[in-house]
Amino acid sequence: MGSLLLVVSGPSGGGKSTLIRSLLKRRPFHFSVSHTTRAPRPGEKEGREYYFVTKDEFQRMDKAGELLEWEEVHGNFYGTSKAEIQRLMALEEDILLDLDVKGSLHLKRLFPRAVTLFVTPSRLIPLEERLLKRGEEEWKRRMASVKEIMAALPRFDYLIVNDDLADAEQTIYSIVVAESHRAPEGKEGEAFLERFYQQ
Amino acid sequence: MGSLLLVVSGPSGGGKSTLIRSLLKRRPFHFSVSHTTRAPRPGEKEGREYYFVTKDEFQRMDKAGELLEWEEVHGNFYGTSKAEIQRLMALEEDILLDLDVKGSLHLKRLFPRAVTLFVTPSRLIPLEERLLKRGEEEWKRRMASVKEIMAALPRFDYLIVNDDLADAEQTIYSIVVAESHRAPEGKEGEAFLERFYQQ
Fold first, then answer.
1. pTM surpassing 0.80?
2. A-B interface: how many C-beta pairs under 8 angstroms?
3. Across residues B90-114, what is the average pLDDT?
4. Cross-chain residue pair B196–A157, CB shorter than 8 Å
């Protein structure tokens, strides 16, 4: 029934990372490794936490269209390369990606079988509260993009309303189970029918 | 996030009815009632399992274009009336349909938002055993159509392999939960965003 290509997105502070960590405890996924221009921290290993590149190399990758998405955080660049996605897809195992909204929709255009999940609280208020904990300057910057992010919601496959973590965990897990049971097509469908008729 | 239009199909003897009964215990659905010309079995009630009609009445309905789909099985006619589907859809609540493969795919063409489920054991052998319990003549007749039914599998949305009932129950329930979390579009999307920004 094929491997999953799951993409999780949504506004910052919406509890996306917690939800992803929780899902990974219930079910293994290959997780994409991003490129970054920031220096490795002690214990970080090239190709495990990140691919560490120079700003020149990062800009070259961006100009060459090699990046699905990128963002600048505190003067450092972070991005997901198309080559990384292709490396993971070649493994033919389940993949989980944490991308921004533009990156998610970009990926969906490149790979229509990608399953895109939008994670958000049902109301702006708890989102503001969580963002405020990160400091007011950060809050201002992030709130500016919330409207743009939220407007992309109808273009996603699924909406996970993360007001209650246990509920949201159950929902994301149900989506994973459901999407793992897509009817097999092409060669997979033929293989299923072949096994079906075997005595 | 809209009401569900769930369609369950698959080969006879695949445990579809048991699975549907089990799902209905966990979650309420409006269930379409088919018209049939076959005689009621012990315990079956008019308007619950079927609408029991004469062959003349059934043919009148067919000629009048009142049937969404119909099939002849062993000399008996089974059909789902358009009026029944329209009645259910007007309720704007979750609907569960148990249709034959052709009817399922027909419905999917008419209503692309329909979610089609194909239920089958992974191997022909248990299917044969279950069908044999219904008598050898019945078995021969039904086996003749199994190949045609199975060939339609890749055109369905989901495959539920019903080798283990508890597994299959969990899968169908997960699909229902997942499909209940489709990202809202159009007016539903607007309504979600309006609530989101409300102070």
1. yes
2. 109
3. 89
4. no
Give the span between the Cα atoms of A124 and A146, in whole angstroms: 9
State whether ipTM is beyond 0.90.
no
Give dist(CA A162, CA A157) in Å, integer.
Answer: 16
Q: Which of B18, B21, B6, B10 is closest to B120 using CA atoms?
A: B10
Nearest to A159 among B124, B157, B184 (CB): B184
Nearest by CB to A183, from B157, B174, B198: name it: B157
Q: Is residue A178 situated within a structural domain?
A: yes
From the first residue on, what is the mean pLDDT of each consecutive set of 10 residues in chain A (199 residues)?
A: 87 87 93 93 92 97 94 90 92 91 92 95 80 75 83 96 96 97 94 90
| Burial group, residue A119, by CB count within 10 angstroms (0-12, 13-18, 19+) | buried
Contact B181 A159 (CB under 8 A): yes
The answer to whether A28 touches A21, Cβ cutoff 8 Å, is no
- And the tokens for B1? 């996030």
Q: Do B183 and A156 touch (CB under 8 A)?
A: yes
To the nearest whole angstrom, how far is the Cα of B199 from the nearest Cα of chain A? 7
Q: Do both A165 and A100 map to the same domain?
A: yes
Instruction: Kindly report the CATH number assigned to the domain that includes residue B176.
Output: 3.40.50.300
Do A83 and A174 sit in the same domain of this protein? no
CA–CA min distance A35, chain B (Å): 30
Asked whether residue B48 falls in the same domain as residue B113, the answer is no
Does A120 touch chain B if contact means CB atoms closer than 8 Å?
yes
SS3 A31: strand
Same domain, A165 and A150: yes
Tell me phi and psi for residue A85, to 5 degrees.
Answer: -60, -45
3-state secondary structure of A67: strand
B37 token code pair = 């010309």
- The verdict on A33 touching B (C-beta cutoff 8 Å) is no
Q: Please write down the HEC assignment for all residues of B55-91.
A: HHHHHHHHHCCCEEEEEEECCEEEEEEHHHHHHHHHC
Q: Specify the pLDDT at position B48.
A: 87
Contact A181 B159 (CB under 8 A): yes
What chain A residue is nearest to B161 in terms of C-alpha separation? A181
